C-alpha cells in the first residue's frame, strides 16, 4: 500500500533536515528519505563557518540572504536546544581575512571603507591590532579585514539537531532508502519511487546535494571536492576564525582546530590525498606558525554541491508543479540552511516570504 504525505524531502543533509524541521513545525506531515545515513555527506565535512561577509561581497545577490540566515542562528540555537537538548555550538567570534602583501592590504582596506560607508560591520586591522586580538597569527601578516559578526557552528550538531527537531514535530525518517525516480502525472510531480516502496505527496522537495541531478539531470550539478584536517593543541591558539588564500583555520571546542579546505571541481572522489593535506598544512603554517606543534587528529573530505552559475536553487521548479528544489549551496550550505528551510516552507504555505516583507 502506498502512503501519502504533505511533503516528501529527498536527501538528509543539512538542507533536507532544515526543510523537514521547518515544515513539520508548521504541522505538515513530512517524510524524509536518505539513501545512506542522515548527515554523512557534505554536511558533516563542513567547517561550520557562518561567513556571510567573508564569503559574499555586498553587491552579491546572495548577500542579504546570507546575512539574514546568519542572523537567524541565534534564535534557532535556543529553539533547537529547547526541544532536542543539542547544543549547535554557535559562536560569534568573527572571521579575519589576512593580508600578507601590499596589494592585499590595499584591497582589504578599500573593502573595509566601502562596506563601512554602506553601514556594514567590518574593519581593517593593522598588524599590531591583529596580533593584539590574535597573538598566534604570524608576525608576517600585515593586517586583516575583520568581520566581527561572522561566526560558526558545529555542522554535525546542527544537522543532528535539525533532524531530531523534525522528528520531535512528527517527521518520519527513512535511512538507507534511495529515491530512484520522481513520479509524474502530466506536469505534476505526485510522489517518489524508492528502491523498495512508493510514496505520494502534495509536494516533493529535492535536496539531494550534488546527487540531485541523478533525479533531475537538467540541474547539472558539479561536485567540488574539499579536504579538511583537524589538529589539537595544548593551549587555545585562536579565538576567531582566520582565513588566507583559500585556506582557513576554525577553532573548535577543546582546543581543536579545523583546517580547510582544498577545492577540486568535477571530482566525485572522496579520498584524502597526500597533496591535499600537504598543501593545507603549508598554508596553515604560514598563517599560524605555532600550529606545527599541534597533534594531528584526523582528515576527511566532502563534495560541495555547485550549480553551473554558482548560485543555489531554492524554490518551486518552473515546469513541474508539486516539485521544489533546494540544492547547490556550494560553500555555504551550513550558513544558508536556516533561510532555505524557511523559504521552502513559506512557498509551500503560500505565505509572503518573510524576508521580502
Ligand atoms: P549533502 O550534505 O551532501 O546532503 C545530500 C544528501 O542527499 C546526502 O546525504 C545524500 O546521500 C542524499 N541523497 C542524494 N540523492 C538521494 C536520493 N536519490 N535518495 C535519497 N537520498 C539522496 N558550508 C558552510 O556554510 N560553512 C562552511 O564552513 C563550510 N565548509 C565546508 C567545508 C568542506 C570541506 C565542504 C566539502 C563543504 C563545506 N561547506 C560549508 C558547504 C556545505 O557543507 C554544503 O553546502 C552543504 O553541506 C550541502 O548540504 P546538502 O544537504 O545540500 O548536501
Ligand atoms: N565554506 C568553506 C568551504 O567550502 O570550504
Describe this structure in words.
By secondary structure, the protein is α+β, with helices and mostly antiparallel strands. The protein has three domains: 199 residues, FAD/NAD(P)-binding domain (3-Layer(bba) Sandwich), CATH 3.50.50.60; 54 residues, 2-Layer Sandwich (D-Amino Acid Oxidase, Chain A, domain 2); 85 residues, 2-Layer Sandwich (D-Amino Acid Oxidase, Chain A, domain 2). Helices cover 31% and strands 29% of the residues. The chain contains nine helices and 19 strands. The strands form three sheets. Strands 4, 5, 6, 12, 13, 14, 15, 16 and 17 form a nine-stranded mixed beta sheet that branches. Strands 1, 2, 8, 9, 10, 11, 18 and 19 form an eight-stranded mixed beta sheet that branches. Strand 14 and strand 15 form a beta hairpin. The chain starts with a strand and ends in a 9-residue tail after the last helix. The C terminus is likely disordered. The site of flavin-adenine dinucleotide has 42 residues, from helix 1, helix 2, strand 12, strand 17 and helix 9. Glycine binds next to loops.
Amino acid at each position: 500500500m502506498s502512503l501519502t504525505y504533505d511533503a516528501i524531502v529527498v536527501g538528509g543533509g543539512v538542507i533536507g533536515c532544515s526543510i523537514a524541521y521547518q515544515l513539520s513545525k508548521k504541522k505538515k506531515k513530512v517524510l524524509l528519505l536518505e539513501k545512506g545515513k542522515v548527515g554523512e555527506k557534505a554536511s558533516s565535512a563542513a567547517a561550520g563557518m557562518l561567513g556571510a561577509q567573508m564569503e559574499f561581497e555586498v553587491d552579491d545577490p546572495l548577500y542579504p540572504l546570507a546575512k539574514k540566515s546568519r542572523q537567524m542562528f541565534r534564535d534557532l540555537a535556543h529553539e533547537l536546544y529547547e526541544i532536542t537538548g543539542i547544543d549547535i555550538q554557535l559562536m560569534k567570534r568573527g572571521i579575519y581575512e589576512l593580508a600578507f602583501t601590499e596589494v592585499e592590504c590595499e584591497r582589504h582596506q578599500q573593502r573595509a571603507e566601502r562596506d563601512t560607508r554602506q553601514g556594514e560591520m567590518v574593519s581593517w586591522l593593522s598588524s599590531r591590532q591583529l596580533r593584539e586580538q590574535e597573538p598566534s597569527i604570524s608576525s608576517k601578516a600585515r593586517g586583516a579585514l575583520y568581520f566581527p559578526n561572522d561566526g560558526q557552528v558545529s555542522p554535525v550538531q546542527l544537522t543532528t539537531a535539525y533532524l531530531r527537531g523534525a522528528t520531535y514535530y512528527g517527521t518520519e525518517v527513512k535511512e538507507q532508502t534511495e529515491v530512484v525516480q520522481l513520479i509524474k502525472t502530466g506536469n505534476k510531480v505526485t510522489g517518489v519511487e524508492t528502491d523498495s516502496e512508493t510514496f505520494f505527496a502534495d509536494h516533493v522537495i529535492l535536496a539531494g546535494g550534488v546527487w540531485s541531478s541523478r533525479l533531475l539531470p537538467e540541474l547539472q550539478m558539479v561536485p567540488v571536492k574539499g579536504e579538511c584536517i583537524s589538529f589539537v593543541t595544548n593551549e587555545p591558539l585562536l579565538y576567531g576564525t582566520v582565513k588566507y588564500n583559500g585556506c582557513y583555520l576554525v577553532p573548535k571546542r577543546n582546543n581543536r582546530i579545523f583546517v580547510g579546505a582544498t577545492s577540486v571541481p568535477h571530482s566525485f572522489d572522496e579520498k584524502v590525498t597526500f597533496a591535499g593535506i600537504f598543501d593545507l598544512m603549508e598554508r596553515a603554517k604560514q598563517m599560524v606558525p605555532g600550529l606545527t606543534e599541534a597533534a594531528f587528529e584526523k582528515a576527511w573530505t566532502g563534495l560541495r554541491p555547485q550549480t553551473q552559475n554558482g548560485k543555489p536553487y531554492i524554490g518551486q521548479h518552473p515546469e513541474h508543479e508539486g516539485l521544489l528544489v533546494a540544492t547547490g549551496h556550494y560553500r555555504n550550505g551550513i550558513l544558508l540552511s536556516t533561510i532555505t528551510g524557511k523559504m521552502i516552507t513559506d512557498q509551500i504555505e503560500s505565505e509572503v516570504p518573510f524576508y521580502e516583507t
